[in-house]
Write a structure and sequence with these properties.
Two copies of one chain form a homodimer. Chain A is α/β, with parallel strands linked by helices. Chain A has twelve helices and 14 strands. Chain A has two domains: 235 residues, 3-Layer(aba) Sandwich (Aspartate Aminotransferase, domain 2), CATH 3.40.640.10; 121 residues, Alpha-Beta Complex (Aspartate Aminotransferase, domain 1), CATH 3.90.1150.10. In chain A, strand 6 and strand 7 form a beta hairpin. In chain A, helix 3 crosses helix 4 and helix 11 runs antiparallel to helix 12. The two termini of chain A are 40 Å apart. At the A-B interface, helix 1, helix 3, helix 4 and helix 8 of A face helix 1, helix 3, helix 4 and helix 8 of B.
C-alpha cells in the first residue's frame, strides 16, 4: 500500500475531495457566462464569511500579496503607522511598511506573547497593522479590543486574518475593521493561489500616493463591480473556493468556529496529557494551531522530519528563532477530531523513539474526552 | 447529451487531461520533500522553454503581476523608458510605467500595426518595454530585431511574452533579452495562476528604488536559490505546470513552434477561403491568434455570443476600440488541426445564420490542405 499522507501544517491545509475535484474541471474563460455566476457567488460567499456588506477584493496572489495591497493602497512615504508584532507575520507587516517608506511605530512583543490593547493607547497613526492569528506562534490576538483602541486614536485598522478567517470569529463590519486580508489556503479549505482584502469606505477614501498597479484597489473594485476580474484570475482555484465556501457555510460559521475551538482544546489537552509544554497561551481562542515546545534534549526539527519520513505526516517546525525549539500542529479548515488523535498518536510515537521522557497511552483518550465535553 | 464545450480564446487556453488531473492532487506543503523536487524540475523546465541559463522567477499572480515586477524592479520615478505599443497589452505597459512615475517615450502604433525596429533608433532609455504577441490584434512582433536596436541604444529590454512563450520562437539568452515575462495559462497549457520573469544579471544589477515587496526580484531569487518560494505558492498549479511543461518538452520546442505556424496558417487560409478579411498581417509568425474582421453588416459581438450560446464554443471579441469589429480565434497551446476545423465550421455556420455573405463549404477543406502541406 502506498503510504497515506497527512497534511497538518497551519497552511496550506488539507482540501476536501469535492474541492479538489473542482480544481480539475476544464478551464473556462473568465469573461464568459460560464464563469461570471461562479465569480459572483464566490464574492457573495466571501462577504458572508467576512461578515461584511462591503467589498471583498480578490487577488490571484499569496496572502502576502493581499497584505501588500493594504500597504501600497494606504501608506505614502513618511506616513506614521503602527505595527503590533509578536511573531513572523507581524514582522512581515513591518518589512512591508518599511518597503513603502512608512514612519513605523513598532509595538514589538516577544514571539509567543499576546498583544495587549492597552499598549496601543496614545499611539496615533494613519493605520494600525494587526495580526489576528500569528501562525508562527499559535497566538490569536484580541482584534476586537485592539481595533477599538486604534479607532479611539483615529487610525484605520488593517488585519492579517490569513490563517484565522473562517476558523476564529471575526466581524469585519461589527468591529469596524477597515481592511481584512485573508487567503484561500487556510480555513477556507482551498489550494493556495487566491487572497482577499475587504476594504471599508474610509480606507478606500484614504488611498495613498504609492505606486501600484496589480494590487491597486481601484482597478480591482471597478472590475468586480462589473463582475469582472481586472486580470486573468486563477479560475480553477476560484471554482474550488466556491465549492469550499459552500461547504463551510452549509456547516454554518458559528458551528465551524465551535469545531475549531473544540479541536484546539482537544489537541492541547492531549499534548499536555503526554507531559508536553505548550508554547502559546492555552486559551479558548487559540483554535488555529497548537505550538508545542520540543521536550528537553529533543530537536523539533527531528520530530518534524521523522513524522514525515516514517509516517507521511507533515507538521510545521518553528519559524525564525523558534526553529528546532517548537513544533506546530495545524487544525485549520478541513479537520475533525480523528485528525487530532492521528497527530497526537504519531507525535507520541516519534517522541518516544527519539528518547523523550513522555507519558504514553493517554494523549488520544484525553483529546477525545475533551473534544466530546467541550461546548462553546 | 450535455453540450460539449470548446475553449478557443487566446487565453486562458484548453488544458490537457493529465494537467487537469494534476490540479486535483491532494495539496502538499510548499516546504516539504514532496514539493521541492516538483518545484526544482518545473523551474528547470521553464528555463528550457525560455532558452536561458539564467534565473526564471516564479510568481503566484496573473501575467500582469509579472509585468509589474519588471516595472517595479527596474523603473525609478523620472527614469526614461520607451514603450512600443500597438494594442491593448502595449497600452498596459504604458499604464504600468506611468504608475511608477517613468518619463515615458511612447512609440505608439495603430492597433494591428507591427512595430518596426527602425523606429527605435536613437530613442535612448533605461528600459525598452516590448510586446511579443499582441493578443488583442494577433500581431507577433520581431523581438529579435527590436531588441537589437534597443541594445545599440544601451537600453535594457523587457518583453511581454505572456501569449507567445512556448508558441513562437523566443531565445532569451541568444537575443540578449534582459527580462521576459510569461504566464501559465497560454501556450504552457496550464490553468491561470502563475507568471514568470527571466531576469538577466544586467537587469538584476539595475534595480530601481521603487517600493515593492511581493514582486521584489531579490526576495524571490534568494528563495528560489534555496528551492523555496518566498510566499506560499499555488502548489497545485505548479504541479500542473510541471506536467504541462513535460508534455511540451516531450513534443520538442521546435516541433511545437512548427505546429503553431501550421495551425495559424490553416486557420487564416480557412477564414480567407470563406471570404473573410484578416485583421492582422498574414505572416508566418502570426501563429498565436487569428484576428478576423466581422463581415459588412455583422457585429462581432453577435458572432461571439451565438457561438457560445448555440454551440458551446468560446472565442474572443475584439478588445477596446476593436470590440464588435473583429473576432479572435486562439490556437495557442493544446490545439490540433481539428480544433481549427471545428472553429472554422462553427464560424461559417453562425455567420451564415447571421446573414453574412460568405462562401460555404470550403473553409475546413482549405484549412486541412494548408495544414498538411505546410512545412516550416
Amino acid at each position: 500500500m502506498p503510504e497515506k499522507r497527512y497534511l497538518m501544517t497551519p497552511g496550506p491545509t488539507p482540501v476536501p475531495p469535492a474541492v479538489l475535484a473542482a480544481m480539475a474541471a476544464p478551464v473556462v474563460h473568465h469573461r464568459s457566462p460560464e464563469f461570471t455566476p461562479v465569480f459572483e457567488r464566490t464574492l457573495a460567499r466571501l462577504r458572508e464569511v467576512y461578515r461584511t456588506d462591503g467589498d471583498v477584493l480578490m487577488f490571484t496572489a499569496s496572502g502576502t500579496g493581499a497584505m501588500e495591497s493594504a500597504v501600497a493602497n494606504l501608506v505614502s512615504p513618511g506616513d506614521r503607522v503602527v505595527v503590533a508584532s509578536a511573531g513572523s507575520f507581524g514582522e512581515r507587516w513591518t518589512a512591508l511598511v518599511r518597503a513603502y517608506g512608512a514612519d513605523v511605530d513598532e509595538l514589538a512583543y516577544e514571539w509567543g506573547e499576546t498583544p495587549d490593547p492597552a499598549d496601543l493607547r496614545g499611539r496615533e497613526a494613519k493605520v494600525v497593522f494587526l495580526t489576528h492569528s500569528e501562525t508562527s506562534t499559535g497566538v490569536v490576538a484580541d482584534i476586537r479590543g485592539l481595533a477599538a483602541v486604534a479607532k479611539e486614536n483615529g487610525s484605520l485598522v488593517a488585519v492579517d486574518a490569513v490563517s484565522s478567517l473562517g476558523a476564529v470569529p471575526l466581524e469585519t463590519d461589527e468591529w469596524a475593521l477597515d481592511v481584512v486580508l485573508s487567503g484561500s489556503q487556510k480555513a477556507l479549505m482551498t489550494p493556495p493561489g487566491l487572497s482577499f482584502a475587504s476594504v471599508s469606505e474610509a480606507a478606500y477614501a484614504a488611498r495613498s500616493t504609492s505606486p501600484r498597479f496589480y494590487f491597486d484597489w481601484e482597478r480591482i473594485r471597478r472590475a468586480q463591480q462589473q463582475l469582472d476580474a481586472a486580470y486573468t484570475p486563477a479560475v480553477s482555484v476560484i471554482a474550488a473556493l466556491d465549492v469550499a465556501l459552500g461547504i463551510l457555510l452549509d456547516e454554518g460559521l458559528d458551528a465551524v468556529f465551535e469545531r475549531h475551538v473544540r479541536l484546539g482544546r482537544a489537541c492541547r489537552a492531549g499534548a499536555k496529557a503526554m507531559g508536553l509544554e505548550l508554547f502559546s497561551p492555552d486559551e479558548d481562542s487559540a483554535a488555529v494551531v497548537t505550538a508545542i515546545r520540543a521536550p528537553e534534549g529533543i530537536d523539533a526539527t527531528d520530530v518534524v522530519k521523522t513524522l514525515l519520513h516514517d509516517h507521511g505526516i507533515t507538521i510545521a517546525n518553528g519559524q525564525g528563532p523558534l526553529k528546532g525549539q517548537i513544533f506546530r500542529i495545524g487544525h485549520i479548515g478541513y479537520f475533525d477530531v480523528f485528525d487530532i488523535t492521528t497527530a497526537l498518536a504519531a507525535v507520541e510515537l516519534v517522541l518516544a523513539e527519539l528518547g523523550a521522557d513522555i507519558e504514553r497511552g493517554v494523549a488520544t483518550a484525553r483529546a477525545l474526552e475533551v473534544y466530546e465535553h467541550t461546548h462553546v
